[in-house]
Design a protein that fits this description.
The chain is of the alpha/beta class. It has 14 helices and ten strands.
Amino acid sequence: MFFTDRAVNELPPSWLNSWTGHGMISRVPSPEIRNIVAAKHIPVVDLNEQTGDMGVPLISNDHAAIGRMAAEHLIDRGFRQFAFLGHTGHRWSDRRGETFAKTVRSAGYDCEIYAGQVNRGSDLREGAWNVELDQLALWAASLPKPVGMMACTDFRALQLLTACQMAGVAVPEQAAVLGVGADDVACALSDPPLSSIVLNAWRMGYEAAALLDRMMKGEKVPRGFEMPMPPLEVSVRQSTDVVAISDPMVANAVRFIRKNADKGINVEDVLRQLGVSRTTLQEHFRNALGSSIHDLIVSTRLSRVKQLLSETDLTLAEVSMRCGFRHVEYMSGLMRQHTGSTPGQFRREHGLANRPQRRS
């Protein structure tokens, strides 16, 4: 087994011409490399969807299923206005956007598609990210709110989150943003943390190896063969963890609560922030959400509790402090009341020790 780490857009490596392997799994990034590989007359399985048909079997993502899953996720959250941000002119991105829009429109809603210019996949790395931000901010500000927004990748979604911040568009209260790829670092460190569609990369790798094995044993695979892999699920984080809210007063209150719930705020703090009476805001909450201000504060804190219990090994006292609870006993009582489990039981079922380890 020979493995080498390279950038997608590098020139053909010097060793490739003299390489004498019997089969290859590749992300063929250019016609130049394709021609060198083709001249070797060995079985090749491709994993690169950036450049379209390279004349070898392709294991790909199911882009239609990705777009459909994104639309259904946002529709389920009550959104009735939608938008898609992709890389115009790239087959995989266009397919995701087309199916996203088709699914939304089939449900009876409108979808705005960002009319960007056709760029190379490397353009964001070469400065187009910042050049395009002003235009994206204007686009985000112009969309009807609240809006459910899909980006074609996680890094396109990060760009969209930055544009929303520049435009003063609150995420997720005014715009829910969903990416694709579920990059752990990018999604966890974005502001707010990014929801994303989880792709079945492990299955793609397995099927690529299995297909290459059969080809090396003599199986003939027709030109243009493609095996699309459907996505696994939506990894929900804060950027879409919301119900669509059309009432501006409630949207502002929800935004304040989500940002400050772990600081120990109460209903009075929310009322002071908005400058309205308890009666007025409670009525708006009941009409928009069917719940009270206090209920949202508690549920927001408990969501954070569950996240820390499942993703960290912090003590219960540390979890309680970080989530705005003065006493562990009070936090535990609320957990039992709202979930049916104590914090300890929840951690045993969902914590780090309960997760299967990936094979290296």
